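In response to reviewer comment 3 from the previous cycle, which asked for concrete evidence that the modeling workflow produces usable outputs, we include below a single protein chain processed end to end. The sequence was submitted unchanged, and the resulting structure tokens are shown without manual editing.
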Amino acid sequence: MKDKQQSYHESFRVSGDEISAKIKEIIREGKARRIIIKNDKDDTIMEFPLTIGAIGILLAPIYAAVGTLAALAMDYTIIVEKRDNPEKKDK
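The workflow returned the following structure tokens.
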């Protein structure tokens, strides 16, 4: 039987020049399962999963794609799906 882990979402509003640094910070934190990047019209621009085994292989293309978004100098919303909601420690 699989152990179902609870997840929750957190969002950040960033400008184009801040997006790369914020994505790197989220990945370094290590609790993100999925990152979704939306533009100011709420259209999904990019979405990618972050799994433990794939992180080392996928980081370079992810950083390159995020860098391309940064060059567009728009406002973005980063939605992060995380595991282990800190508000639900006691069950």
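DSSP finds two helices and four strands in the chain. We consider this sufficient to address the reviewer's concern, and the full set will be provided in the supplementary archive.
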